[in-house]
From TrEMBL:
Every DUF218 domain range: 78-239
Gene Ontology process terms (BP): Gram-negative-bacterium-type cell wall biogenesis; peptidoglycan metabolic process
Residues covered by region (Disordered): 254-276
This protein's GO CC annotations: plasma membrane
Entries under Pfam families matching the protein: DUF218 (PF02698)
Protein name: Membrane protein
Membrane-crossing residue ranges in chain numbering: 43-62
Species: Candidatus Defluviicoccus seviourii
Length: 276
């Protein structure tokens, strides 16, 4: 229910969609003779749209998220958790072949880290996150993608039931059963790392963050790219607030410090019941 409500609200509140909706309301108001209201709404919405597209607003919003955690690899790694979100479920289902999206670096990094740490367990966590499509479990598609690359599927563990970041952490914890003293690496997009770390800490699983898939800084200006970054950044900030309020995250804006209040034996005493 949390996922369905969240996705429904985001469909409306997403900055790009919201601006288009406001423009439509402004034009409708003008057509109905509400010129004063429609004119003001049209001018205001257009000003915001142009500003968001021309100014590097997306970069300004994304950089605090992406720079929150440094990309540092530990000398020893016992396990690696890679979060899903690298496959375009719509095209994959329609075309019958795995189609990667802009977050494909999560997968390519997974393969590279699996080779760098040959003794580490590797978990890919990704279920069916879309609510308006036939269920496409991302883990199943990733397994087929790895086999297509000639990589042994038994080298990886697949968590295929999660639909949210919280479930990524919860179900991966059940699968990994991390022990005290183990070092687990978490791989996800840099802008998504703060929210992901907050969830893992809320479950008392301290993981070492390894952010990938950076989107900033940009050395060019594009209205489409800027608006896309605004959408991504706003989604993460809204997600941080929603997860903290609902108890799914341990902090408002998780950072690289590891507070002792969120540690119970470096993975011991892990809470794996969906009580939050």
């Amino acid at each position: 229910m949390f996922m369905i409500v969240g996705k429904a609200l985001w469909l409306i509140a997403r900055p790009g969609n919201l601006l288009v909706l406001l423009l439509a309301i402004a034009l409708l108001a003008l057509a109905l003779g509400r010129r004063r209201f429609g004119g003001r709404l049209l001018v205001g919405t257009t000003a915001v749209l142009v500003s968001a597209g021309i100014l590097p607003l997306g970069t300004w919003l994304m950089q605090p998220l992406e720079e929150r955690f440094p990309a540092v690899l530990p000398a020893r790694v016992d396990g690696i958790v890679v979060l899903g979100g690298s496959i375009d479920a719509t095209i994959t289902e329609a075309r019958g072949q795995v189609t990667l999206n802009d977050s494909a670096e999560r997968l390519t990094t997974m393969v590279a880290l699996a080779q760098r740490y040959p003794d580490a367990r590797v978990i890919f966590s990704g279920g069916a996150a879309a609510v308006d499509l036939p269920p496409v479990r991302e883990a199943d598609r990733v397994s087929a993608w790895l086999e297509g690359l000639g990589l042994a599927a038994d080298r990886f563990l697949f968590e295929r039931d999660s639909a949210t970041t919280y479930e990524n952490a919860l179900f991966s914890a059940r699968l990994a059963q991390p022990k005290a003293g183990e070092t687990w690496l978490l791989v996800t997009s840099a802008f998504h790392m703060p929210r992901a770390i907050g969830v893992f800490r809320a479950l008392d699983w301290e993981v070492a963050p390894y952010p990938v898939d950076f989107r900033t800084p940009l050395d060019f200006y594009s209205v489409f790219v800027n608006l896309t970054l605004v959408d991504l950044a706003v989604k993460e900030y809204v997600g941080l607030i929603a997860y903290r309020v609902s108890g799914r995250s341990a902090e408002w804006f998780p950072g690289p410090a590891q507070p002792s209040a969120h540690r119970k034996g470096d993975g011991g005493g892990l809470q794996t019941s969906p009580s939050r």
